[in-house]
Amino acid sequence: xxxxPKNFSLNFPYYNLVFVLLALLGCxxxxxxxxxxxxxxxxxxxxVIAIIPSVRDMIKTLRSGQVGIDVIALAAIGSSLLLGQYxxxxxxxxxxxxxxxxxxxxxxxxxxxxxxLLNRKPTIAHIIQGSKVEEIPVLKVIVGxxxxxxxxxxxxxxxxxxxxxxxxxxxxxxxxxLPENKTIGDMVLAGSVNLDGAVEIHATHISKDSxxxxxxxxxxxxxxxxxxxxRLADIYSLPFTIIAFTLAGVAWWISGDPLRALSVLxxxxxxxxxxxxxxxxxxxxxxxxxxxxxxxxxxxxxxxxRLQAIAFDKTGTLTQGKPAxxxxxxxxxxxxxxxxxxxxxxxxxxxxxAQVVVDYAKSKKVTLYKPTAPKEFAGKGMSADIGGKKxxxxxxxxxxxxGVNVDxxxxxxxxxxxxxxxFASKDKEYLGSIVFADPIRPEAKDTIIALKKLGISxxxxxxxxxxxxxxxxxxxxxxxxxxxxxxxxxxVQLLLTEKKxxxxxxxxxxxxxxxxxxxxxxxxxALGAKGSTAASQAADAVIMQDNIGRLSELVVISKRxxxxxxxxxxxxxxxxxxxxxxxxxxxxxxxxxxxxxxAIDIVVILNALRARLKFQDK
Length: 618
Prior knowledge:
The protein is α+β, with helices and mostly antiparallel strands. The protein contains 20 helices and 22 strands.
């Protein structure tokens, strides 16, 4: 067995390029030392070994009914070796292996940048064994195991609560933006986060059958249905290849000299396509990375430059993904007094909404009471004494359980009891509610306006949240096409339907439930700063910062990079075409043609490097 370096398949083009450069340098030294025959044999061996991967890829491409950009280069190398033109062969081999190494460099960089995101999947569980609690790998959990969920724990497997009450953040799984109160008999889903009380659950599924893993399976299925990306250079390869081989044939026919045909192939070798295009694309990817966006491959950047439509998740994507006070709705008292009572009681609570309302009261310069005898009822609410009177703050059901009529006639329909809210009472008299919402990101509207100016015509919202929550947000942002309460599989089907009408289409999301639709889209874009591992893995690009405004920057960078790549392609093809005419007429020898082609390379590569430079976004 041969010893291969770690990640050999990824790094092979690097090794191949280094091998080519060192081996050809050795051949040059042999020639200088008076051993031209050995040097020529060396060039042949190096060339044959170096082009094996390209030949394999070319055969695969031809079998698929396409013509790749490597055909002319391989033909030029083979012809050069057959006709004893070793210098042109060596020059083209360096160019070919260099282009492959550049493309792999981009992929390796993207993988390195994403490593920090891939650590959020549930990996451990706390199993209850008699009176002891032990930590075990999630994969060892079986149905029926009793598990303990501490505040802050990620739920390891799907389960049902049999002891305790808590609030659970399920936004990454279901798309519901605000915490869900859970008590005995309620289900909790793997991948969600336990926020408040310690609860005990019975596992209802093993890890591989959990809701989390079902979403991962959907990701895999969606990925297999995704259309393969066509490299930008391949679009121009077929007509250019036909022209090059036709002119080579004409040159041989009118001169009877195969060297003249070789000269045509040498100057026609698509270096601008093989090297300058990857340079422009990699430069654009590097520029995006400097702005906090990781693009996983050059083909993705090319797709981004042609986007026709974008679909958005709501929670954590267009919204901030965390609750904020959206209304203070008193019943028989002033707003300030209601806020003061609720915040005074909640300052002792560990509930996820408690700190939100306390911070809001402080921002309004409200001076809090100093209640006594605070007591928390996990997953339900708080009680405390204020001025000798018992105050309750919590869910509507919690107040009802304590004899409070939250449907007082004067306040009938108050908050409709449909929104996320904290309800309050004092001495069993209903005082009103504090309503919470997931606020729109401040940069969201400007981002969509900027994207419209960039030529994107269709905007869609795909969310698992309720329509009464999602539609007002969509209206404020100018999104008219809204699909609410959509499960992960439904999101995929909805996007595939839109894809038939608007392609390429991008999907932007951050939660585990977004992973399948990210994989199914032409370009999946994940918000990775606070998003899930599954979303980042399924996506083609990851915004590393918690700022959706980077999306419009990404489209600008993509369009500019592809524009520069096309400039390089057309400049290179134009200059090569001029040289081909001179080669047909017999004015250029193969060796001279190889170095003239390298001069063209330098020009177009320098142009391609502009994609890495800063520029004024428009």
